[in-house]
Amino acid sequence: MKRVGDSARMYAGMLLTVTMMCASALVCCAGSNALARGREAGAREASAQAEGPLSGMTIAVDAGHGGYDGGAVGRVSGALEKDLNLDVAKRLSRLLQEQGAQVVMTRTGDYALCDEDPPIRKKLQDMQRRAAIIEQAGAQMVLSIHMNEYAGREESGPQVFYREDCPAGRLLAGALQEALVGELSPSRVREAGGGDYYILTLGVPSALVECGFLSNAGEEALLRTAEYRERVAVAIARGVLAWRALPAEKPKPLPAVDRSGEPRG
Fold it and tell me: What is the Cα–Cα distance from 92 to 207, expressed in whole angstroms?
């Protein structure tokens, strides 16, 4: 009986070894296939970028607000600007990549880019870190996504802002404004305007896009739908493509603002 038991145990051990070897082979095979699929997907994406009209461009897409900073609030629904901004930014990022651009996003989730208790103002540290991401990526364009609000509920319509007195920003903002009006057909048609915004002072063509008014019930309802946010993203992407296709030499942006004297967190 003892010999039979020893043989049985030996046989069981051999079966276990063979089973583990087979399982290991399957895992290795699955991993290799997954790696191959990843490489193929990366190759397809790289190929698409190389052939797109935005090939060679690195574009920063900045989803305004985030985390503790909710931004504007929907007058009817209470929807937070930070969430809508991020959704539009992600859609825009996808569309720009499909046209060949390399895209860097300043945030990809619901968080602010500042410490919980920084030695400087939270908003200032947040903006400094957004700027650092953009500069380190070598971005050649900045698109900052926002939602508008106003005390009066009648104000509506998307509007694009550029750095005051910056011809390069004005040209980009004009192309974006025209595309937004053409795609969305807003009841109130606005013009691109100059403004004083931190995110627009980094020395590259930049625009801050106010996609619509959350203080207007009708526009708030539109902005809360995925379909409309996709249309907003499509319009912005078309504006970038229109800007890119302009035949004349584009004006140079104003130099970046020297912020070396600002406090650092």
Answer: 14
Model pTM above 0.90? no
CA dihedral 101, 219, 66, 199 (to 10 degrees): 50
Task: Tell me the C-alpha to C-alpha distance, in Å, between residue 140 and each of 56, 143, 209.
Answer: 10, 10, 17
138's CB contacts (< 8 A; 6+ apart) are: 58
How crowded is residue 63: how many other Cβ atoms within 10 Å of its Cβ?
28
Length, in residues, of the chain: 265
Sort 186 into a burial class: Cβ within 10 Å, 0-12 / 13-18 / 19+.
middle
Token pair 């939270």 is at which residue? 122
Q: Residue type at 139?
A: A
| Residue 69: exposure state from Cβ atoms within 10 A (0-12, 13-18, ≥19) | middle
CB 215 within 8 A of CB 75: yes
In angstroms, the CA 6 to CA 137 distance is: 66
- The predicted-structure confidence for 190-199, as pLDDT tens digits, reads as follows 999 999 999 9
- Signed CA dihedral, 196, 198, 199, 202: sign only: positive
C-alpha–C-alpha distance, residues 148 and 54, integer Å: 28
The helix/strand/coil state of 101 is coil
Domains of the chain by residue range? 1-51, 56-245
Contact 130, 60 (CB under 8 A): no
CA 18 – CA 31 distance, rounded (Å): 20
56-245: what CATH class?
alpha beta
**pLDDT (tens digit, 9 = 90+) per residue, 23-50?**
334 333 333 333 233 333 333 333 334 4
* Six-digit token string for 126: 């947040």
- Output DSSP code: residue 73: B
